[in-house]
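About this split. The held-out portion is used to measure sequence recovery: a designer receives only the structure tokens and must propose an amino acid at every position. Recovery is the fraction of positions where the proposal matches the reference. Here is one held-out target exactly as it appears in the evaluation file.
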């Protein structure tokens, strides 16, 4: 018995230590970073900038895998049902907070994903054709004078750009007519041609046209003015609520991922987005790095989910 008891204690001790040892060894193989949009999309570009730097810090390759469809929900669902071991991650986006009210989903982003860290934010712009309104005040006045007669373009039904338009209507009491396109670039082509008067779009899509004088920037969507357009006010500055957050991206994992792994990934993400070369690459995409705790990231997901659900319900937004 004297030999059996110490042996039993040793076995139990090793059994308890194994999960901790496994976590401390993380990562021991390549990590998959899932993007819910196709190659060449804004999310994909950011993922391919971010992944190699994250992998270098972790000592393992971080491989980007595109799983597009249903506004990003197909990729999100894949990650939700992946093992909670830190080897399948999601480049989560603002779209994930609106999809719950647009699609019949088998998951809940706030419940079934563990927030790791915010990565960055790309502001939006409200832009107009040169023959259109020169300010948000003029746009509101024209829309009130001719309800439903001023068309605005967005990248697709149910996209964040579309929801910006619906939110604008709700907060200002106007009624613009939504014209959806297959992508923001296609919408911009028609705006440049004067077939629509205004567009809600990611800054990265329309910035070159604004700089060239082919489009007028009426307002910025986001917490701060764009450094490249310091004279263009934010919609929040103009007293229009709900536009303090733009197109954000963050890193998430399946719920139940061990906390030591979450913390390791959080530290590495903050390290990566603070690198001067990363900030420069982000700037080239009209994107700024965002820091903060995992808890703050989780709070943003909750806040945006509630906000977009209200907009979608009130405006009766549907997707085909």
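Reference sequence for scoring:
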């Amino acid at each position: 018995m004297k030999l059996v008891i110490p042996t039993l204690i040793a076995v139990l001790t090793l059994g308890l230590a194994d999960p901790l040892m496994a976590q401390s060894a993380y990562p021991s193989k390549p990590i998959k970073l899932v993007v819910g949009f196709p190659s060449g999309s804004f999310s994909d570009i950011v993922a391919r900038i971010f992944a190699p730097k994250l992998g270098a810090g972790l000592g393992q390759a971080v491989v980007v895998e595109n799983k597009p469809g249903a506004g990003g929900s197909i990729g999100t669902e894949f990650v939700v049902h992946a093992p909670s071991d830190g080897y399948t991650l999601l480049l989560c986006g603002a779209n994930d907070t609106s999809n719950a009210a647009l699609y019949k989903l088998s998951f809940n982003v706030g419940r079934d994903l563990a927030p790791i860290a915010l990565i960055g934010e790309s502001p939006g712009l409200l832009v107009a054709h040169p023959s259109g309104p020169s300010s948000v005040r003029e746009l509101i006045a024209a829309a009130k004078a001719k309800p439903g007669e001023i068309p605005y373009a967005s990248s697709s039904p149910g996209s964040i750009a579309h929801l910006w338009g619906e939110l604008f209507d709700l907060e200002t009491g106007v009624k613009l007519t939504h014209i959806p396109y297959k992508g923001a670039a296609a919408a911009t082509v028609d705006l440049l041609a004067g077939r629509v008067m205004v567009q809600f779009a990611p800054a990265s899509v329309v910035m070159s046209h604004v700089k060239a004088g082919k489009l007028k920037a009426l307002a910025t969507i986001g917490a701060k003015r764009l450094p490249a357009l310091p004279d263009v006010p934010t919609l929040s500055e103009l007293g229009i609520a709900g536009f303090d957050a733009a197109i954000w991206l963050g890193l998430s994992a399946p719920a139940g991922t061990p906390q030591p792994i979450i913390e390791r990934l959080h530290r590495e993400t903050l390290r990566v987005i603070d690198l001067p070369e990363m900030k420069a690459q982000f700037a080239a995409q009209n994107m700024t790095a965002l820091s903060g705790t995992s808890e703050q990231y989780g709070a943003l997901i909750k806040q945006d989910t509630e906000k977009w659900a209200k907009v979608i319900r009130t405006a009766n937004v549907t997707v085909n």
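Annotator remark: The longest helix spans residues 294-315.
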